[in-house]
Amino acid sequence: MIVLRKRLLFWLIKAYFKKWGKNILIYFGLGLVVFFLLNKVLSYSITRLPFIEKETIGMVGSYTIDSLPREILSKISKGLTRTEIDGTVKPDIAEKWKIAPNGKSYAFILHKDRFFSDGTNLTSDNINYDFADVTVRRPDKYTIVFDLRDNYSPFLTTVTRPIFKNGFVGVGDYKVKKIRLNGNFIESIELYSEKYHKNITYQLFYPTTFALKTAFLLGEVSIITNLPDLEFKNSNFGSFKNVKVEKKINRTKLVTLFYNTRDKVVSSKTLREGLSYTMPDNFESGERNSSPLPYFSYANQGRFNAYQQDLEHAKLLIDKSETATESGKISLTMDTLPKYESTAKTIAETWKKLNIETKIKVTSQVPSNFQIFLGEINLSSDPDQYTLWHSSQVNNITYYDNKRIDKLLEDGRKELDIQKRILIYSDFQKYLLSDPPASFLFFPYYYEVSRKQ
Predict the structure, then answer these.
(1) Which residues contact 59 (CB under 8 A, 6 or more apart)?
(2) N or C: which end of the chain has fewer CB within 10 A?
(3) 451: which strand partners?
(4) What is the DSSP letter of 334?
(5) Contact (CB, 8 A) for 176 and 190
(6) Separation between Cα atoms, residue 320 and residue 314, nearest integer Å
(7) C-alpha distances in angstroms, 451 versus 72, 159, 191, 192?
(8) Closest Cα partner for 355 from 315, 392, 412, 400?
(9) How far apart are CA 444 and CA 250, in angstroms?
(10) How far apart are CA 401 and CA 396, in angstroms?
(11) Any idea where the domains of the chain sit in the sequence?
C-alpha cells in the first residue's frame, strides 16, 4: 500500500513538471534577475540617502537672545558685507555698494536671489540695523542707503553683522529648529542645515570650563570648544582614548600687558620701554604679535616686530628711568585674568632677573584701579583702535594721553582711501610703540575637544 502511494506521488510530480516545468524555470530565472536588480538599486539608493550628521557643542557662558556668540549667529545669517582675514571688506548679501563723494552716504544694492530660511525673498525692508546717528532710505526693493552724520570709514565692517527677521529667521546655511530658555537665558539652541544635512545643538548653560569638561566626559556634549587648557583634575584630555584634540589660535583677541600711565612708577615712558624689551620672543600660550595691529592686517604693511627681547638694553632703560628705590629694586603689582596667570608668572620670573619684585593678583575682570594689568583686547577686523587709545575714551584703561596718537586715530576713522589709511596706521603704530602704554604679547591658543568617529 505504501509503495503504491509513493509511486502515485512520483507520477503526479512527474506529470506536474512535464506540464509546468518550462514556466517554472522561466519564472525562477526572472525572479533571480529581479532579486539582483532590486538589491543593486536599493543599495545604490541607500548610499545616497541624506545622512544627517549630529553634533552637540558645549560652550561656557550665559547668553540671552540678544547676546548669542558670533559663531552661532554667523551660521544662521549673513551681513551686507563680510571681511577677509586681513580685514579687507567684500560683498555678501549686498551685490555691491557705492560711497558718496562726501563719505557720509553708503548705498548698498542687494542680490535679488537671496532668501530667508522661511522661503521669503530678502528685500531692503528686511534690513533693520538700528544704528545711532544714521538715517536710512530705501529707494527701491533692492536698494538701501545709510546717511551718516559724520565720516566713519569702519562703517563697511559694521554692516557685517548678520541680518534677521521675526527673531532668528536668517539667510544663512542653518535655520533655528528649537530654542530652550531658562528665564531670559538660553539653555540650548538647535540648528539644522539642509545644505549640509547637519544638525547642531549648542548647549549654553555651563558656568565654568570645569563644568563643561565634566559634561563632555559624561556624554552630554560631543564637542567642547574655546578651552584655554586641556587639564582635568589630575589628567589631560590629550591622553584620553577616542578623544580628538585640535589646537587653534584665537586671532580676535590680543593678550596685552596694560600700564597705568597715571601710576607714579609706570608713568615713566623710559620704564615702560624697558619693560617692553623684557617680553619673551615666544609664548607657550599663544602666537606672538608684538604690535597693536595684527601682523596679517592690510593696514600693517610695515609688519612691525618691535621690542624683541633684549635684557641688557632693558636693564639700561630701567636703571635710567630713576624709578627704583634706594635699594635699587623696583616693586610692581600685576593684576591678571585667571587664564593668563601662567603668563604673568613667566613675565615675573624674567623681571626678577632685573631686580624687579612682582606681586601677582588674580582678578576675574578688568580692575577699576591697577598698576599693570595682564588682559586682552577684542580686535575688530578694521584697524580702527580709537576707543582703546584715544584720550577721550572710557575704554582707554591705561589713561593714555598722546595728542599725536589722538590725531592719527581721528584721521584713521575718517579716511576712506585704503592707501592713505595704511600710511596713517603705519604712523600710529610707530609712535604708539615709541611711547608704549602697553606691551602687546600674543594671540591666545585655544582647544577644541571632540570624540573620534
Answers:
(1) 69, 202, 203, 204, 206, 212, 224, 225, 226
(2) N
(3) 243
(4) E
(5) yes
(6) 10
(7) 21, 37, 20, 21
(8) 315
(9) 6
(10) 9
(11) 83-158, 253-444
How confident is the prediction for the chain on average, in pLDDT?
90
For domain 83-158, give its CATH number from 3.30.300.30, 2.40.50.140, 3.90.76.10, 3.90.550.10. 3.90.76.10
CB 87 within 8 A of CB 383: yes
Judged against a pLDDT cut of 90, whether residue 4 lies above it is answered with no
Q: Kindly report, residue by residue over 367-378, the tens digit of the pLDDT.
A: 999 999 999 999
For residue 39, pLDDT beyond 80:
no
Exposed e or buried b per residue across 344-381, where buried means at least 16 C-beta atoms within 10 angstroms of its C-beta: bebbbebbeebebebebeeeeeeeeebbbbbbbbebbb
Do 260 and 399 contact (CB within 8 A), yes or no?
Answer: yes
Q: Whole-angstrom Cα distance, residue 371 to residue 271? A: 13
Residue tagged 563643561 (cell numbers): 212
pLDDT digits (tens, 9 = 90+) for 247-269: 999 999 999 999 999 999 999 99
The 8-class DSSP code of residue 124 comes to G
DSSP string, 141-167: TTEEEEEESS--TTHHHHTTSPP-BTT
Task: Please give the share of the chain, as a percent, with pLDDT higher than 70.
Answer: 87
What would the pLDDT profile of 93-119 be if each residue is shown by its tens digit?
A: 999 999 999 999 999 999 999 999 999
**Cα–Cα distance, 96 to 88 (Å, whole number):** 14
3-state secondary structure of 415: coil
Task: Kindly compute the dihedral angle of the four CA atoms of residues 287, 288, 291, 295, in this order, to the nearest 10 degrees.
Answer: -50
Q: Which residues of 431-452 are buried (b: 16+ CB within 10 A; e: fewer)?
A: ebbeebbbbbbbbbbbbebbee
Return phi, psi of residue 16, to 5°: -65, -45
In angstroms, the CA 364 to CA 339 distance is 9
What's the fold here for domain 253-444? Dipeptide-binding Protein; domain 3 (3.10.105)
- For the chain, the C-alpha Rg in angstroms (whole number) is 33
- Tens of pLDDT along 205-231? 899 999 999 999 999 999 999 999 999
Task: Report the pLDDT averaged over residues 174-202.
Answer: 94
What is the C-alpha to C-alpha distance for residues 129 and 110, in angstroms, rounded to an integer?
15
Output the CA torsion sign for 337, 339, 343, 345.
positive
The reported pLDDT for the residue numbered 423 is 96
Strand pairing class (94-99; 243-249) = unpaired
User: ∠ CA 406-410-416 to the nearest 5 degrees?
Assistant: 150
pLDDT given at position 446: 96
